[in-house]
Design a protein that fits this description.
The protein is an alpha+beta fold and about 140 residues long. The protein has helices at about 10-15, 25-30, 80-90, 95, 105-115; strands at about 45, 50-55. The chain has a two-stranded antiparallel sheet with strand order 1-2. β1 and β2 form a beta hairpin. The protein starts with 7 loop residues before the first helix and ends in a 24-residue tail after the last helix.
C-alpha cells in the first residue's frame, strides 16, 4: 500500500500557509497514522455493458465495533464514503473518463449578480409556506 508523497512544491505552498505546523501535525506524524488494513477506494471497471463501480473489500465487518481500546481505524472505515460517491454519480462513466466542464454562460451569471446587488432576489421560505399536516392522498375528511 503506497500513499502519495508531498512534493517540494506542495511543501513550499503548505509551509507558506503554515499548514504543516498546525496542531503539531508534521509530515512524519501524518505518514505514521494508522490507515487500517487497506484504503477503501471506488473502483471503476470497464465492461461490455459499460462502466461498473465497486468498492472492493466492502462491507468489511471483520473487526468488532464495540470496544476499541487501541483507537485504531475500523475495518469498514471509508466504505460508506466510497459507496455513496459511486451512488451520487449520475453517469458511472464519469468515474472512468471524467468530463470537461465546458463553457459557462457569463450573461446568466452577470444577471444573477445584478439581481443580488439590486435586492431583487427571491426571499427564502420561512417554513410557513407548507402546511404542517399533509395527507397521503386517501379519502377527504
Amino acid at each position: 500500500m503506497t500513499y502519495p508523497q508531498i512534493t517540494p512544491r506542495m511543501r513550499t505552498i503548505a509551509t507558506a500557509f503554515g499548514i504543516l505546523v498546525l496542531a503539531g501535525c508534521s509530515e512524519s506524524f501524518i505518514n505514521d497514522l494508522d490507515r487500517g488494513s487497506q484504503r477503501k477506494l471506488l473502483n471503476a471497471t470497464m465492461t461490455v455493458d459499460g462502466v461498473v463501480l465497486t468498492v472492493p473489500g466492502c462491507p468489511d465487518w471483520t473487526k468488532p465495533t464495540r470496544v476499541n481500546y487501541s483507537n485504531s481505524v475500523h475495518s469498514n472505515f471509508g466504505c460508506a464514503d466510497a459507496a455513496n460517491l459511486g451512488a451520487m454519480l449520475a453517469n458511472p462513466a464519469d468515474a472512468w473518463f471524467g468530463r470537461k466542464p465546458g463553457t459557462a454562460d457569463g450573461a446568466v451569471g452577470a444577471a444573477a449578480i445584478g439581481r443580488y446587488r439590486a435586492g431583487e432576489t427571491k426571499p427564502l421560505l420561512d417554513g410557513a409556506s407548507a402546511p404542517a399536516e399533509t395527507t397521503g392522498g386517501g379519502e377527504e375528511k
